[in-house]
Design goal:
Blueprint (H helix, E strand, L loop, with lengths): L3 E7 L19 E2 L3 E2 L1 H10 L4 E6 L4 H7 L13 E5 L5 E2 L2 E2 L5 H7 L1 H5 L5 E6 L2 E3 L3 H11 L3 E6 L10 E4 L5 E5 L9 E10 H13 L5 H7 L7 E5 L4 E3 L3 H10 L3 H7 L17 E2 L4 E3 L2 E2 L4 E2 L2 E3 L2 E2 L4 E2 L4 E3 L2 E2 L4 E2 L4 E3 L1 E3 L4 E2 L4 E3 L6 E3 L6
Parallel strand pairs: 1-4, 1-8, 4-5, 10-14, 16-19, 17-20, 18-21, 19-22, 20-23, 21-24, 22-25, 23-26, 24-27, 25-28, 26-29, 27-30
Antiparallel strand pairs: 2-3, 6-7, 8-13, 9-15, 10-13, 11-12, 11-13
Helix pairs in contact: 3-6
Amino acid sequence: MKGLHGIIFSYEKHNDLRDLTTNRMPASVPFGGRYRIIDFILSSMVNAGITDVGVVLHGNYQSLLDHLGSGKDWDLSRKHGGLRLLPPFSYEETGGVRAFRGKMEALAGVRSYLEGVRQSHVVLADSDLIVNIPLQEVYQAHLDSGADITAVCTSSVDGPDDVTYFRLDGEGRITETLYPLNDPTGCYRSLEMYILSKDLLLELVDECMSHDLCSFRGAVLQAKAGALNIRSFVWDGYAAQIHTLKDYYVRSMELLDPTIRREIFHPQRPIHTKERNDASTYVDPNGTCCNCLVADGCTIEGTVENSILFRGVSVEKGAEIKNCILMQDTAVHRDAVLHQVVADKNVEIMASRTLMGHEGYPMVISKGSKV
């Protein structure tokens, strides 16, 4: 898509992902057996024909750098354009890097990058959204409507508490932007994805910085509601915003539903990720694997039910895994029992251990732990 440039905001939010974000940003949290959360919005951009994508970084981003690399796995390793990892925009202060204050401050920090954007329009998106959306349709709707800004939203208000909501008129124009909101009945939940022209974006960035305004929601969506034509694109397909551990666990387990899995992993809009060449998964004749999502490179000799296994997971004889998420290279030894457990990468569960969580509050084992 020659007219559209992608910008992804990857920053540390006030989330409740607990140990999953001790060593990484929410964008690089593993999801779905072999992916990272950022893969979904990045793949949506690539599948729409976007060839230039900038990722604005902030916080503990080393894991994300390792995952994205040069962008080769997304066909974004190019001499001109392609994937650009934009440097942190915060200022060093006593006590460390200043907290993220808002998208407009982030964009002001990379203004020289924005000036060099070759495309006429920009799509802004957060990195913690699980979605497979045809962005070319959103862009065409933006052009057809003549909107200054098009905001992607969903009629489903079932989502995290700390999100933005819109009220729409009968023609799809956004009349109010609301946050926080105790009763979202009749509103539409923002998916934090916006399309606007490059020229308008630069104008807004300059205006916000001259008034020390940092928030896109407050300084643009709310303050400019009367001056700009801000319209909606309602997406009622699958869309999950991951803000808490419960969000992560519930949305991961939804992938065991074939209907949801087919929608997320649409054959015409594949989800791309960093490649890792593993052998095929081996299931012992005396082992059990029922209703699971299992990546390659696993060895299953025990019992695994209703669970998600990432690449390289091993489950020894006598072990029982139910309703769990075991990330890359986790090893579960003989006769261990795990229910409602989320194990990060390279975790080792010793023989005969019993670990029990709850679907509303799963037990999390941090990366590299030995239990």
